[in-house]
Write a structure and sequence with these properties.
With 152 residues, this protein is α+β, with helices and mostly antiparallel strands. It has one domain. The chain is 48% helix and 16% strand. The chain has a two-stranded antiparallel ribbon. Strands 3-4 form a two-stranded antiparallel ribbon. Helix 1 packs antiparallel against helix 4. The chain starts with 17 loop residues before the first helix and ends with a helix. 21% of the residues are buried.
């Protein structure tokens, strides 16, 4: 789900180098925390092993020209063991669960299993609140960073 938001960064003109990037990253992370909580609560309805809900992470990225993105979803680094193979050439070896590889199948469904949307519901619940919080959190973090720079 994509949401665009215009943010006035003119008060941050005094920040140079990594100061603005740091403030954007921290503020965006704080604003995205309630969205992550909503995604986790919706993903907990998928009750196979519970790995999908445990794998949800926030990843923030700040691009040049002051564009920034928060991606909320299962981390590709989250890997857990869920038993062992019972037969075949891999008999006795551990089975791995990697939620990032099957999250899209849970979200949209397949022809053999119904969809259990956890990202779409969370987006619908929290989109407006997130857009309001982004401006407030980023603004607060920019002010704190300017205050830290003034003390130096």
């Amino acid at each position: 789900m994509i949401a665009r938001y215009e943010l006035d960064l003119s008060p941050a003109a005094g920040l140079k180098g990594g100061g603005l990037r740091k403030a954007l990253r921290i503020g965006l992370n704080r604003a995205a925390s309630p969205v992550k909580a909503a995604v986790v609560s919706n993903a907990e309805a998928v009750k196979r092993y519970g790995f999908l809900a445990k794998a949800i992470r926030i990843r923030t990225k700040v691009y040049p020209a002051d564009k920034f993105v928060a991606v909320i979803g299962p981390s590709s680094k989250f890997v857990r063991q869920k038993g062992k193979f019972k037969k075949g050439k891999r008999k006795g070896q551990p089975k791995k669960a990697i939620p990032a590889k099957y999250a899209h199948l849970v979200e949209r469904g397949t022809k053999r299993s119904r969809a259990q949307p956890f990202l779409g519901k969370a987006h619908a619940e929290t989109a407006a609140r997130f857009l309001d919080q982004v401006g407030a959190e980023v603004g607060r973090e920019i002010e704190q960073e300017l205050a830290r720079r003034a003390k130096r």
